[in-house]
Each structure stands twice: as C-alpha cells, then as structure tokens.
Sequence to fold (237 residues):
Amino acid sequence: MFEDSLVESSGRIRTRSTWYALGSFAIQAIALVALILIPYIYPAALPPHALTSLLVAPPPPLAPAPAPHVAPAHGQALVQPVQIANLTAPSVIPSQIHQGDNASAPTQIITGIGDFRGSNAMPLLGAPPPIPPPPARAKVSGPVRISSGVAEGHLLTPIQPIYPVIAKEAGIQGTVVIEAIISKQGIVEQAHVLSGQPMLARAALEAVSRARYQPYKLNGQPVEVDTTINIDFVLGN
Fold:
C-alpha cells in the first residue's frame, strides 16, 4: 500500500519540480537585467566615488628633456641663426641718395647660377659644371689620303682620255693607274703612273691633268688630298 502511494505521487512531484526550475530561472534573469539597466536609467543610484573615478582625466604626458648644451670645439666658430628683418616701404621717396663714410657696402648681385659679384663669391650648390671649350682643330700637315671612290665622287666633269692611234692600231687596251695630288682648289698638281701599258700612260696623264675636282674639306676647311685615279682604255669606244 505504501508502494502504491509513492508510484501515484511520482508524476506530481516531477511536474512541480519543472515549474519551480522555470520560475527560478525567470526570476534570476529579470534580476540580472534590472541590475544592468539601473545604472543607465537612474545614474544617481551609483555610489559617489564611482562617478568621480570615471570623470577624472588622465595626467598629461611628461615634457621631453631639453637637449644638452654642447660647447664648440677650440677654433670652431659659432653659427648664428639668420634673422630676416621686416621690410617696409618708405612713405617718402628721396630725390637724391647721399653716401657718407658710414655707407654700407653694396649688396652682392647674383647674375646666374654659380655666378656672384664680390670678393667672397661662392658657387651655388648643385650648379651645373661649366661647358668645356670645343676641342682644338688638328692642323693637317701634308695631303690627306682618300680612296679613289671618294675622289671620283668629287669629280666635276668625267675624265675622257684620247686613245693613242698607235695603241689602237696595235690593239692595246687596259687600265692605267695614276697617283695624283689634288690641291685645295681642286686642280691636279702632281701625277705619276703606278701601273698600266706604257703606250697608254702619256694619254692617261694628259687626261688627268685636265680634270677638275670639287675641293675636299676636312673640319669645314679645304685641304690637299692624295688619291689614285683609274683610266680605262677599251677598244671600240
């Protein structure tokens, strides 16, 4: 009989313990929310020392220590700071300027970068170096050697030699190579045969002596040149 009473009351005991747990949790949650919201809704409820501790500002930072004074070394001059005076326009412009014995020295005039007027002139930092003078032109001593192709390019009129009759009847042909010196005016001054048929050499020299050339220039100045000239003799021309 006692056992039946315990079994019948077990369902009620479980139901009551569940409601008690839920109610206790709800009460604790309401109390916690109230404790959090009271300082925001009613700040006067906080203790006085709590409010004063929040309103006190932090102490200011300490000022940096002054730099130690360093005495200049023996023989070293002190560098004084440059002071710029305030410039004001004069109310009256004088008609004449009188310079006495106590007149100040004229101000140094800067005319350009690195150019100062005065005895204590110093170039500006970063100024470009002076432009070096142009190289001196080398003096040419003697004729300048040029190739036969360059000489032919300066030829004003084609060289037309006269074919010797004896060489033509003998069927002699070929090329005569002549070394010649051409003057500054483009005239052949000296000529001699280097190679070729002897029967054609005289006609070749006469044709070269009549040739005229454009003066050859070196550094803008006409100079004498030494070159070779090829004279061709071909039958049937």
